[in-house]
Structure formats: C-alpha cells, structure tokens
Amino acid sequence: xxxxxxxxxxxxxxxxxxxxxxxxxxxxxxxxxxxxxxxxxxxxxxxxxxxxxxxxxxxxxxxxxxxxxxxxxxxxxxxxxxxxxxxxxxxxxxxxxxxxxxxxxxxxxxxxxxxxxxxxxxxxxxxxxxxxxxxxxxxxxxxxxxxxxxxxxxxxxxxxxxxxxxxxxxxxxxxxxxxxxxxxxxxxxxxxxxxxxxxxxxxxxxxxxxxxxxxxxxxxxxxxxxxxxxxxxxxxxxxxxxxxxxxxxxxxxxxxxxxxxxxxxxxxxxxxxxxxxxxxxxxxxxxxxxxxxxxxxxxxxxxxxxxxxxxxxxxxxxxxxxxxxxxxxxxxxxxxxxxxxxxxxx
Length: 346
Known about the structure:
The protein is of the alpha+beta class. Helices cover 32% and strands 22% of the residues. The N and C termini lie far apart (53 Å).
C-alpha cells in the first residue's frame, strides 16, 4: 500500500474533487466520499459543534419560515458519523455530494466577506486572517481558495489557494471568467442560471437577521459535459432549447440565441426586476420580489439547476446576528460576485 495513501474503511475513498480546505496529509484529514455522499471532517471540537448545531437547526426548522427558505441553499445534511482513518477514530459530517452523477464537474470555492474572523477570534487569529487574500478580499469582499475546471478538450486544470492568494481584483475577475470557460465567448445560459440562484440567496440575506456568517463559502458547481451537450443540442434553434432532462417548453419565442433580448443585459435585468413586486425591509432597501421569492429570466430553461448549482457551505463560524442586524459583511461580497457575473453578460 502507498504510504501516502490514508487507510480508509471499505467503500470510502478520498474526495478527488475537493478544491479547498484541508487536504489529506500526515498532519490533516481531508474529505471523503461514499455512495453519493461526501464526508467532511468535524474539525476542532468547538467549530464542529457549532456547525452541527447550525445544520440541525436548519434541518429541523418547521415554524421558522426564514430557516425553511435556507434549506434550499445548503447541501442536505444527513448525519454525524464516526469512521476509522489511519487506525484512529474521527468524526465526520455526512452530506449530499453536489457533484454526484456529473461527468466533468467544474467546482469553485468562493469565500464570502471582507471579514473572515469570527467574534471569538483572538488578536493573533484576526491578524492572520487580515493578511490573507488581501487584494481581493478588501476590495471585493470575496476570495478564491481553489477551483477546478474542464475545457472543450476534456482536460482538467486545478488551482489551489496559493494561486488565489496572488490574485488582485482584475485577476479575480479573470479567474472567474476562466472557471466559466468564458475567456473568448460567454456561455449565457450558464451565467444566467448562476445569477438566478445568486439572486435568490441575496434575497434571503436581505431578509434574514438571524445569523452572521464568517469564513463561509459559496460552492459553485456545473457539469461541463452536460452544458456542452445542451448547447450543441440548441445549435441552429432560434428559440430557447428544450432541456436535456425534461421537456420544459420555452416561454418566449423571440429570445436571442443563448443570450438576452437585444444583447443588453442590464436593461434586460432591470426590466425583469421592475415587473416584479417590490418588497421593502427596515433599512428602506428596495428588493424586487416575485411571488415565490425568486427571480426568473423569461425564456430560461427551468431545469438547468440539475447540473448548475450554487450552495452555501462551511458553517463552523456562524454566529447569532448581533442586535438583529443584517449580515452586511456577507452581502458586500455577494453583491461583488453578482456584479462580476452580470458584467460578463454586457
């Protein structure tokens, strides 16, 4: 047996699609996978307990409508399990594998927020965190700890945290464009679906005053193989194509191929928002809101979410909101990410 390979229980293997966080080494546990699940190490006892409590509160939410809405934005948590790794017992979170069934999963971890240290952090921890990803984090409120992407040749490229730490603002934008295979031509259905999901998450954060999220990430996942098949299927069609997985008919017959009407994305999005009911929160922020609390782009395929997903992850540093306030730290980074994607559609 290779000495560098950990000794794992039967049926378990290293999660080869892990792009950020601690990887397996002689000093650290990494993530595992098994039968459609991923297993994340519990970590430090206090952090693991905090994350477990968060998952259990969200999963058990029945009366609280805000927490019930949150369920759709996080991976489904199944249970806490004990596994023997390298002849020693460890605790793991067992959760759904967002890439299960994907042939060419492109995955990006986007850490959200200017501030990534929690209220209990020591002065030393705060200083360490402030020095990480400075150029991107302080200007955009996001940073890129890692991602992997497939290209049209079927090749996979991986970028780790050392790459992310070197990025300035324009470098961060370029890395996101690279991840979306948009260096030469923007895949509009992909970007539009990502924006739809981000708008839903933003709407939740503009309403919720329960939690503040520190050092939490958005995991962006899409299957390059399925996306290419869908685009090839749509070649030559003047209207929005049927989805690969179902027969959802296009709603508008005059949509520009793989784009927005007249190619003017900002006007397009603004018109959509204007047509939705406005909702006002206490800080007088006007938020476009559809009847089901979700943005919908006319003519979009409603099944893209099957192979294009965004989920909130990493909740070891989630704390109750102080004074019932909005999580402006998270919102700042989220708005930056949305702006970067919207700019791709100009």
